[in-house]
From TrEMBL:
The chain crosses the membrane at residues 12-30, 260-281, 293-314, 326-349, 361-378, 384-405, 417-442. SUPFAM superfamilies: HD-domain/PDEase-like. Residues 475-621 form the HD domain. This is HD domain-containing protein.
Length: 699
């Protein structure tokens, strides 16, 4: 006979992770591949068809903005320093020195004409044509003195005006018009040649101030925003693709990337890194004990559903990404499983959703931070109001992020910011509403009980609790005491206290079918029906309260997790009283079948159901034996714990020795307050005589 091979859960979880990683990788790259709006073209090509905007978009045109800033810079006039009078004085002084030197040469009696010409030509500050030099040497002293004086006057007159480098040629050309008209033309030409070299700018160009003005002009130009609505023509058929058209096509991602394989490789690296991260999280935490294969599969499906919808239908739009309630996934995971996993998967979902988008970083922050704040605000999700307060927190956090990123951004105007803020608020409310639906789907599919279900189930007006209260009031009161005992202990060890309380309240609901067979429902001093019936029948009646409770729980549609409390609170123990009685009545004790006196079980499978077993046994024994002092109470608790431990009832739970010690201490403090000694009040004396009694409130 061939052995049936059993596939290990770990293998199945790993397979789900690998398949999910592959699907997530495809979701990162397929939207760009499947989009039919990508074109193979180059700058300067002629468009072979009309190209329309696939969605509305506003963006800062770097090309037009740069052009406008260049135009603004070119329009800046050079900035000159104020007129410097010292420059004019220096030039006039230099002219006088030259004139004095020429006068000295003219009056030299020992030099001939050639020597005088040669001496004047040695002047560095003045390069006179030889013809002008000869004219100067041939002038009479009176005419030379007149020319000398006129040259100085003309230069002073010119240098009193503001002269800049571009003005020098014009000014030099106007020298003749400034010379006294009494001078003949040939002598006026001499004056012009003497003055002309000494005309220099007296207002200097300031390179620093000009550069500063250019920078200010560039900065004063606001970024130019180009806006397109969905369906607007970007390029017409037959149009040459210029730089402006090319920029718009690139912004829309309509140009097929030359780095196609690099994009695939990048997406693959990201997916691989995330897969390793999830594997490490699974390996180094206790999730493998709380996540069944079914749970892992459901989480993977919902994760991929959120990612796929976003990548294929949401991310290439302007407003829709800010409405998309991606936070619902993290909120649901936090409610059903744990907070740490919700943070990790929310971060991963946010990164992968915004991957490769033009404003991917902004969107990642928008997706992740509000989700984390929503999860923290939601807490244990024990009230409907907590969901909507969490949604409001998500919306407000989203608005804050939009303001933080969009206010400094000149591309988005106030109308756009207001629109995005409204979308963020809608996002939060939608996420909270969707979470209510998802947590119900998760709980029903995985058999996990949520806090809302537990609170609804624990209502005193619940039909099954009303049935217990009417038919088995003693069992009902016993269940409440056990619930208080177990709830306190659950809080001490960090277990689910609400689940423990609700499960404890219902654990004995099956006793309402045969209430009088259980001592807590019997009237004092009344005969016990178990004394009059066969021990086998008595045992089956006692044991049946477990199966009867399961039937009632399913009839009243209690959560599956609560049914576990009903089935496991006695584990696989046996009815000791009936079994002992059967042994006493049997002729041969070996003929007694112990299985007929054994509860169907199973043994407790969780810390919560184990707490119920310990609390149920401890409360019943305490009520029966009424310990007189604290030592007796501690001894009683130790005996109960040892009894269940020795019978291996706690072997399927993950309770530690430290947990058991904390549970004992919690039971002791709770029972010490519940079963303390009471004052016995004296009877009222007849004949209207008042008894001398002490005030019970003082005891």
């Amino acid at each position: 006979m061939e052995r049936k091979q059993i596939i290990r859960p770990g293998f199945l979880k790993g397979l789900i992770l690998i398949v999910s990683a592959i699907l997530a990788f495809l979701m990162l790259i397929l939207p760009e591949i499947l989009r039919q709006s990508s074109y193979q073209m180059q700058l300067g090509d002629v468009a072979s068809q009309d190209i329309l905007a696939p969605y509305s978009l506003s963006f800062e045109s770097e090309l037009l903005t740069d052009r406008a800033r260049k135009d603004a810079a070119n329009a800046v006039e050079p900035i000159f320093l104020p007129t410097d009078p010292s420059i004019g004085r220096r030039q006039v002084e230099q002219l006088r020195e030259v004139l004095y030197f020429i006068t000295t040469v003219r009056l030299d009696p020992f030099a001939n004409l050639e020597q005088k010409i040669s001496d004047i030509q040695t002047l560095d500050a003045l390069a006179l044509p030889e013809e002008i030099i000869i004219r100067i040497l041939q002038l009479s002293d009176s005419r030379w003195n007149a020319i000398e004086a006129e040259s100085t006057i003309v230069l002073e007159q010119i240098m009193r005006n503001t002269l800049r480098e571009p003005d020098i040629p014009t000014t030099q050309g106007n020298i003749l018009s400034l010379i006294d008209f009494s001078f003949p033309q040939d002598q006026a030409d001499i004056v012009m040649e003497l003055v002309k070299p000494f005309i220099v700018p007296n207002s200097i160009l300031s390179a620093d101030l000009t550069e500063t003005a250019i920078k200010e002009a560039r900065q004063s130009v606001e970024p130019i925003v180009r806006s397109f609505v969905s369906g607007e023509t970007l390029v017409r058929l037959g149009q040459i693709i210029g730089e402006i058209e090319w920029e718009a096509l690139q912004r829309y991602g309509l140009i097929q990337s030359n780095n196609y394989w690099q994009d695939i490789f990048g997406a693959g690296i990201l997916t691989l890194l995330i897969t390793i991260l999830i594997s490490l999280y699974h390996k180094n935490t206790l999730v493998e004990k709380t996540f069944s294969v079914k749970a892992v599969l459901l989480v993977a499906v919902v994760f991929l559903l959120f990612l796929g919808i976003a990548r294929f239908f949401v991310m290439h739009r302007t407003i829709v990404p800010y409405i998309y309630p991606i936070a619902a996934f993290g909120l649901t995971f936090s409610i059903i499983f744990n907070f740490e996993g919700a943070l990790l998967l929310s971060l991963i979902l946010g990164i992968m959703t915004a991957y490769g988008m033009p404003n991917g970083f902004d969107l990642t922050i928008f997706f992740v931070i509000p989700t984390i704040m929503g999860v923290l605000t939601l807490g244990k999700a024990r009230r409907i109001g907590a969901f909507f307060f969490s949604g409001l927190t998500i919306g407000v956090a989203g608005i804050a992020i939009i303001l933080g990123y969009r206010l400094p951004d000149t591309v988005t105007d106030m109308v756009g910011i207001a629109t995005l803020s409204a979308a963020a608020l809608i996002n939060g409310i939608a996420a909270a509403s969707l979470t209510l639906l998802l947590q119900y789907i998760f709980s029903q599919t995985l058999g996990i009980t949520t806090s809302l279900q537990l609170l609804d189930t624990s209502r005193p007006d619940h039909p099954l609790l009303q049935l217990m209260l009417r038919n088995a009031p003693g069992s009902y009161q016993h269940s409440l005491q056990v619930a208080n005992l177990a709830e306190q202990a659950a809080e001490a060890i960090g277990a689910n206290s609400l689940l423990v309380r609700v499960g404890s309240i219902y654990h004995d609901c099956g006793k309402s079918s045969n209430p009088h067979f259980f001592i807590e429902n019997q009237i004092q001093n009344e005969s016990n029906p178990h004394d009059e019936i066969d021990p086998y029948l008595s045992a089956q009646t006692i044991i049946s309260h477990v199966t009867d409770g399961e039937i009632l729980a399913r009839k009243y549609r209690l959560p599956v997790r609560i049914i576990d409390f009903i089935k496991e609170h006695h584990g696989t123990m046996h009815t000791h009283y009936q079994y002992t009685k059967a042994l006493q009545e049997a002729e041969n004790p070996n003929d007694v079948d112990k299985s007929l006196f054994t509860y169907p079980g199973p043994r407790p499978q969780s810390r919560e159901t184990a707490l119920l077993m310990l609390a149920d046994g401890t409360e019943a024994r305490t009520r029966a034996e009424r310990p007189k002092d604290e030592d007796e109470l501690k001894s009683l608790i130790d005996i109960v714990f040892m009894f269940y431990t020795q019978n291996n009832q706690l072997d399927d739970t993950n309770l530690t020795l430290k947990d058991l010690q904390l549970i004992k201490e919690s039971f002791f403090h709770t029972l010490k307050g519940s079963y303390h000694p009471r004052v016995k009040y004296p009877a009222i004396i007849k004949n209207n005589e008042t008894a001398n009694t002490s005030n019970p409130e003082k005891t």
